[in-house]
Design goal:
Layout: H1 8-18, H2 23-26, H3 36-52, H4 55-61, H5 66-79, H6 85-94, H7 101-110, H8 113-126, H9 136-150, H10 156-159, H11 164-171, H12 179-206
Helix pairs in contact: 3-5, 3-12, 5-7, 5-12, 6-7, 6-8, 7-8, 7-9, 7-12, 8-9, 9-12
Length: about 210
């Protein structure tokens, strides 16, 4: 991992794309609380950043800390840069920290069976690990979202009696949320991401 405090290249990219308006804090569920002129400005600036950043620069941000990776994953989602799908999947699968939700959001915004495969790989690896608690519910909510989009039932085996979800929640009852409620949050976050992606597409067409 590259350290933004000691890497001039990463520091410059963070200054340009991550830090403005503390963007990294407003991405994800926090964006849903924006309204009015503040929301309009945030969306416009996010779309502009997604248009300005290059694939090489996104790759560098994905080598940084959680702030840089979170921002990069959102810029990827807004610009629908599906060429980063495998890299996002790798970062999700390697994640045992609390910031995997942004990777889930990016995959959900792509909305294909390949993205569902990556979410399933994450759940298969981490649901049997009750010692790790981050992002399991959000990931399962993401899979439920993708099932609704794709007309599939990939989440059903996890939610079946005695399945991986029940075993994980039995081991961690203090950290378990309702995955169907999590899916509602994923739906809203993806709706916001799609709104930004549609504005990005319109802007790119008129430029």
């Amino acid at each position: 991992m590259r350290d933004v405090a000691t890497d001039p290249e990463l520091m410059d990219l963070a200054r340009r794309f991550v830090a403005p308006g503390r963007r990294y804090l407003k991405l994800g569920g926090s964006a849903l609380r924006l309204s009015g002129a503040e929301r309009e400005l945030f969306v416009r600036e996010l779309v502009q950043a997604a248009a300005e950043i290059t694939p090489a620069e996104l790759g560098i941000l994905l080598e940084g800390g959680w702030r840089e990776r979170k921002t990069a994953s959102w810029l990827i989602a807004v610009a629908r840069r599906t060429g980063f799908r495998s890299r996002i999947g790798e970062l999700l699968l390697a994640s045992d920290g609390p910031y995997g939700g942004s990777y889930c959001t990016t995959l959900a915004s792509f909305g294909t069976g390949e993205d569902a495969d990556l979410i399933c790989a994450y759940l298969d690896r981490y649901l049997p690990r009750p010692d790790l608690v981050h992002d399991r519910t959000f990931a399962l909510g993401t899979l439920l979202h993708l099932d609704a989009v794709l007309g599939t039932e990939r989440a059903s085996p996890y939610l079946a009696p005695g399945g991986l979800w029940q075993r994980w929640t039995d081991a961690r009852p203090d950290t378990a949320w309702d995955p169907h409620e999590s899916r509602q949050i994923v739906d809203q976050v993806c709706s916001f991401a799609h709104e930004c992606a549609e504005l990005f597409a319109r802007t790119a067409t008129t430029d």
